[in-house]
Amino acid sequence: MATDWNLIIQGNISLLWIQECLNPVNKKKTVEELIFEFRSSNLNCEILNPGTLFMATFLLFLYPKEVEFNNCNKSKISTDKFKLLANENVKNKIVDNSYIVERIRNSLAHGHFTVERSELIFEDWVPNSNGLKQNYFKSKIGIGEFGEFINEFMFEIKAQKL
Q1: Which of 27, 33, 66, 135 is 20 to 30 A (C-alpha) from 128?
Q2: pLDDT tens for each residue of 97-116
């Protein structure tokens, strides 16, 4: 899968928004004025966008070391909104919330995800000696639903760790 540079640009535009809000020359502008000016000069990109979502996703899922991530109790995190498209579960693990969260993390870690219209597609696999995909997993979820999932994940892990 090729890098989706739009996600990177969108994420950076969101960071630019924060800088713009903190710029002293804008302190007397209304939020409406500031948003209009900002969007006009930044490809009409929404301030909250898939790039912002993936910045949060990478921080929550990939910044923690794998061993720390694995020690989190993920059973309380609902994965009901993920539609399982393929699951060649060669290790015969129980397909529960923890399993799906781990497969999503692997998908993110290896860059095996795509944004298609208003959905996110996640894939995970282990290549065999012939380079073929083995233990293949594929799931999809709506962007808004994924945002809700990320928030639920963050609040649950926060409750466990802080």
Answers
A1: 66
A2: 999 999 999 999 999 999 98
